[in-house]
Amino acid sequence: MSNKCDQCGVCCSLFLINLSESEYYSGKYKTQLEKLGLIKNFSLASESGSNILKQKKDGSCFYLKKNSCSIHKIRPQVCREFFCASKAKKFQEMINQIKKKR
Length: 102
Ligand code: SF4
Hints:
This protein is mainly alpha-helical. It has helices at residues 11-14, 21-26, 42-48, 77-81, 92-101; strands spanning 64-65, 68-69. The chain has one domain. It is built from five helices and two strands. The chain has a two-stranded antiparallel sheet. Strand 1 (64-65) and strand 2 form a beta hairpin. Iron/sulfur cluster binds next to loops.
């Protein structure tokens, strides 16, 4: 894997994206359970999965368009932190999953 994103789209199709508290309440993002409305207690929102970014029917991120992030400039913090060429231990399991899908 290179140090540059080759826009394979695999990471945006494999993992659930949990919004932080400020992201969840910002109103900028569509979430899986948005029809239920915002949950005032973020712990409850998080436990129920209400802070998970909306997915398409195939399980990929709602904002993934033609293997590219359509909200790149305001993408959630977890998306900013992750990179498939990362050497950080905390990402190794995710990177292994990506390798299996490629
Ligand atoms: S918000 Fe953008 S970077 Fe994050 S998973 Fe969705 S498409 Fe990928």
